Amino acid sequence: MNIFTNKPMSTAQLTHLGFDRNAVRAAISRGHLRRVARGVYVKSNVPDNSLTRASALSLVLPQSSVAVGMSAAWIHQIAGIELDIDDLFARPEFAIVGRDTHIERVGIVQHRYQIAHGDLIRIGDLSLTSFDRTAFDLARIRDAYKALGYLDMCAGTGRLDVEQVIRIRKESLGFRFVGTIDFVLPLIDRGSQSMGESKTRLKIIESGLPVPTTQCPVFIPTTGQTFYLDVGWQRVKVGVEFDGAADHSSPEQVAHDEDRRRLIGDTGWKIFVVRGEDLRNGRWLNELRLAIQSRLPRSIAPLLFGARQ
To answer: Are residues 30 and 85 in the same domain?
Structure first.
């Protein structure tokens, strides 16, 4: 397949060059071409980086638009934020800056809000919100659990400047759901490695329990290994791990988790395993509270829990 560009191309562009659907499928099977999203392809040797992603998304965005929200998050390559790429390309998020323009097109998600010039960047031919402005927009939602998860995932990249997010917040009077940002900003922790872990941690904090340590280390003397719990309290040797279905459901994964937790348990730790359905009720939080209390000296427990005992 002889394509003389390293830029992503749409099905229509490939057809114009003489490559029908059968030729495209053949090129994919031979490793010459890869699918970016439904109807968008790029040569296989082109790296999956922000420039390639910006070029790909520009194929479905209106001219002079700015990629925002999930569109910008995908270009910024924020790991841990789950995206349906086909849906993202079918319903891209964007804004038109500096003009009161509404574009009538089925499926697109156009936002009408102001973005300071300094909070815009350009990658290739596409304008998008800066990393910190993107984080601000992602967290500006009603759901505090998702908002914290998005900010944790942004922090985990090492590129989030919380002071810049605070600055953007102060300049964004009248925006919806900024109260959510005010609530979750002090709770950001780059140690969280998934949205589920962030939600678990916020559930713990909201219940009045002491704030746990993320990626809590546990040394195994018998093997010399160090394992890291999602969250934990070193002093009382109590930890909590969130098991998402995607990463903890296969027989191999289940066996690995059981072996690892057995070794951790042999050192005196008590581990609580939380799954998606557990986050919809608070029974595990009551058990967690009792476990922490039972391992604290009686003189300290009232200081941490007060009347909750």
So the answer is: no
Q: Burial level of 271, CB count in 10 A (0-12/13-18/19+)?
A: buried
Which residue type, as a one-letter code, is found at position 165? V
Q: Are 171 and 183 in contact (CB under 8 A)?
A: no
pTM (predicted TM-score): 0.89
Do 141 and 223 belong to one domain?
Answer: no
Based on the domain organization, do 212 and 239 belong to the same domain? yes
pLDDT in tens, 51-100: 999 999 999 998 888 999 999 999 999 999 989 999 999 999 988 876 55
Position 2 in a domain: no
Going across the sheet that includes 213-220, the strands are 213-220, 225-233, 238-242, 270-274
Write out the residue range of the structural domain in which residue 100 sits: 56-187
